[in-house]
Amino acid sequence: MDITKLVRSNILELKPYSSARDEFSGGASIFLDANESPYPTQYNRYPDPHQRKLKQRIGQLKKVNENQIFLGNGSDEAIDLLIRAFCEPGQDEIVIPQPTYGMYSVSASINNVITRAVSLTSDFDIDINKTLAALSSNTKLLFLCSPNNPSGNLLNYEKVIELIEKFDGLVVIDEAYIDFTSSSGFLPLLNKYTNLVILQTLSKAWGLAGLRLGMCFANVEIISILNKIKPPYNISVASQLIAEERLNDEEGKDSRVREIINQRDWLASELIKLKSVERVFPSDANFLLVRIKNAKETYISLLERGIVVRDRSTVLLCDDCLRISVGTPVENQKLLKELSQL
Ligand SMILES: *Cc1c(COP(=O)(O)O)cnc(C)c1O
Fold first, then answer.
1. Which of 31, 88, 283, 307 is in Cβ range 3.0-4.6 Å of 302 for a Cys bridge?
2. Full-prediction pTM beyond 0.90?
3. What residue ranges define each of the domains in the chain, with the CATH number in brackets?
4. Which atom of ligand 1 is nearest to the CA of 213?
5. Tens digits of per-residue pLDDT, 58-91?
């Protein structure tokens, strides 16, 4: 697939801003090129605009070349930049199987890009025929979320492959929750498909939502387009340093993930025992989608008891559903106790 044919022409022709750290990134003893303060406040210097050290570490972890990694201020930045790079406002389209993460359509709307919503099946998997039918010659991006938010399930692997192979645009697979599954996801196929884009984040399994670090993996051409249009210093010095340090503790991450998975499975088995709970959907993520009698009232009652969950009862296919993040053992027990007393 020729990526240059998919990119908006103004972006293809764009001459990017060249920052001081782009023009000189070698060693010098006196830096008078960026109008920084010369006094060491810990953060007086601009960050590396290409986040080289951090990408080196992420490349090792994910077994991906550094030039196939884009880092954003959260995955949300990558979502926005993908839309801006590939979709001509008022003309191009994005297809989004629903229900899913809300940022894809919000970002599209901000950029005045048309979205086509297609429904997932009743068990929240891809409906191949509906999805293929929604794709047109103006469709540039197809967003898939696996494991999906708010349902928690992995999408069917073969169906995703079929879409990647049949669609002439980019398939963006959001794997924010991939560390909570035993699936290796789609990263191993990165070099097989030029139209495959994968999003991951440090916000969930790595426990660093406050840091704002999202990762986008794709072929070199797509990554260089994102780098060309990003704000030059989009990842702060503090974020880069803290992320580098935390990424060395993979064991700590893995043990927290195991604990969350154990708690998730225990919580699911306890929730289904409650009279008010009609269904707990199978989850490959760190949350559960729960169909419950009087979801809205339950949401409010829990809130009055100091527990906030996510009311998804007005979302497509999620009638009477609450989305509940898995907490600590104490938090989960408290939740069950309050629910059983309602
Ligand atoms: C939480 C979440 C993200 C994370 O976004 P960040 O901006 O990286 O914090 C991305 N996608 C989905 C589907 C999510 O649920």
1. 307
2. yes
3. 3-248 (3.40.640.10), 251-341 (3.90.1150.10)
4. 8
5. 999 999 999 999 999 999 999 999 999 999 999 9
